[in-house]
Amino acid sequence: MKKTSLEELYRQHQPEVIAKRLNTGNRSQDISDAVLGAIDGCITTFAVVSGAFGAGFPASVALILGFANLLADGFSMAVSNYEAIKAQREFREQTRRMEEEHIDRVPDGEQEEVRQLFRQKGFEGETLEAIVETISQDRELWVETMLVEEHGLQKTEASPWRSAAVTFATFIFAGAIPLLPYFVPGLPLPWQFGLSAGLAAAVFFAIGMLKSLVFTKPLLISGLSTLLTGGTAAALAYLTGYLLRQAFGIL
Fold it and tell me: What angle do CA 67, 84, 232 make, to 5 degrees?
């Protein structure tokens, strides 16, 4: 991984650049949703294609099952992501209300919690008391401090609808790619499967490379790692289809 130059580090730590970075919204959440949706979408449809090919089913069956799974699983994954983020936000709000009640009813006890939390970080004496005094004078800061430090609940503005939409869109887009060769008329089934495998491998590798650029990981390793994940899932689907074909004597 290329080392950032000292000049670039100084530029990144200018006050206005820091402020802009800290005020950036849901970029990391969007990237996570997109990567998750794309990988799962491609795995879902190519696993269906592999299983159908291993079982000896015709292209029409692979196409029907592929699109049926693509839409159903894409919708299911988007809804699951929506519900997960919504539940996370609701839990944070519930915990916030509890902390507000505690501050109102037992402020001395809540101040002691702040004191002990920051003592664990190494603060002592007048510095520690100044921190407790500063935090407890600002109710909003006090509540947020307890949410983060006591409960480990980071402040998040992720939108359940946005996350669901990003997940669904990338799931459908990436998942449809391995099905494209099955639209080519007159192409032999082995060629259709081979092209589908090649497209799926390209999608997996591209997702890994994009992930490496965002999270500054080694390009080749990240691409191969994602490719290996998708390839393993497809191999399992193919093997399952082939073994069941043999077990039931499907010609």
Answer: 45
Extract the tokens encoding 110: 């809540």
Residues 243 and 57: beta-carbon distance below 8 Å: no
Q: What is the DSSP letter of 140?
A: H
Task: Tell me the pLDDT tens digit for each residue of 110-163.
Answer: 999 999 999 999 999 999 999 999 999 999 999 999 999 999 887 766 788 998
Closest by CA position to 85, among listed 26, 45, 137, 38: 26
CA distances from 217 to 104, 221, 229 (A): 47, 8, 17
Cα–Cα distance, 122 to 113 (Å, whole number):
15
CA dihedral angle for residue 32, residue 37, residue 39, residue 45, rounded to 10 degrees? 180
DSSP string covering 51-120: HHHHHT--HHHHHHHHHHHHHHHHHHHHHHHHHHHHHHHHHHHHHHHHHHHHHHH-HHHHHHHHHHHHHT
Sequence ranges of the domains in the chain: 33-245
Between CA 75 and CA 67 the distance in angstroms is: 12
* AA letter at 94: Q
The helix or strand, by DSSP H or E, that contains position 200, with its residue range, turns out to be: helix 189-215
Tens-digit pLDDT profile for residues 235-246: 888 788 788 878
Contact 118, 128 (CB under 8 A): yes
Residue 117 identity (one-letter amino acid) = L
User: Quick check: helix, strand or coil at residue 227?
Assistant: helix
